[in-house]
Amino acid sequence: MAATTEHEYDDHDWDKEVEEFEKTKAGVKALSDSGIEKVPRFFICPSLDIRGAAKLQIPIPVIDFEGIGDPIRRTEVIDQIQKVSGSWGFFQMVNHGVPVTVMDSILKATRRFHEQPKEEKMDLYSSDGRQSIRFYCINGKLTKFDVASWRDALGCSFPDDEVNPDAIPHVCRKEIMEYMNHMMKLRDVLSQLLSEALGLPPGFLENMQCMKSSYLTCLYYPPCPEPDQTLGAVEHSDPTVLTILLQDNIGGLQILHDDHWIDVLPVPGALIANIGDFLQLISNDRFKSVEHRVLSRSSRTRLSVACFFHPSGEKSMKPHGPIKELLSEDHLAVYSKIGFIDFVTNYQKKSVRKDHSALSVYKIVK
Description:
Largest sheet: 8 strands, mixed
Low-confidence stretches: 1-7
Helix content: 25-40%
Strand order of the largest sheet: 2-3-12-9-14-7-6-4
Number of helices: 9
């Protein structure tokens, strides 16, 4: 959620408008379907200017995982991951092992869930992130002068790789279970490759249990009557360790690279990996997280599925700092230690973090 300025809402009953929207338990899709011509003010980004966005058509790095069982090819892939994780923080993956049929199925299931009658979803509606399975638009408490994203989400938590199929809505249960099975396998592959890209043994990050838990979000971006006023996802970086993202062919995802917004154009069969804030912290800035956003559209619904990986329940409370094996007299720690739970809590506090990331709070000033 992005911040705006107080004077723009002098005569506006912010709390009442948000409360009335939340009471419907119907999400953004219901607003879109109702035929409104103006979006509610808590969705408006006052300083948004997308007219000059993405003028630079720079291709996002694509890494081909074909043949990574071969030592020479594996070394080439590790080198690519090392370079793009330190400069882009974002890369597309092809030949990653997840079947196209599985990816198509989870996107169809995402649409099927969100396009049910609202009565079928209302019992799951909650802004409380502690709920293991929930349907929501606003994540957490939307405080005055923040901006909500023009999208709905189905969120499913999988702590320590534990899965409770019965808790997942029946309309998308099979597809989510199958997709998560592949996500965990790909997570294990990426964990090894990222470890080696940091110059560490292949099992290092896995032994840290820093990606042992996951959170799957099935996202639905309906048409917006004022796409130049709001965003499908406001500017942010992910506070987690790693995100694997599947997007459909509609487009709209952008990343901030060298102070320019760059379109992440869909690549058939590809998945996107992006470095999270917590991985930037423990890698001591060797890997960089990146701000990203999703543009709204006046027509056509956009679908995406994001899988966020974060530490196990046991390790979430333990303070983490830069990995000691990455430190030396020439490479001192640039961040102080912090537990993942506290890190995410501060990420959610706009009064604590200075921008779209919480990293600056823990930066060691020399």
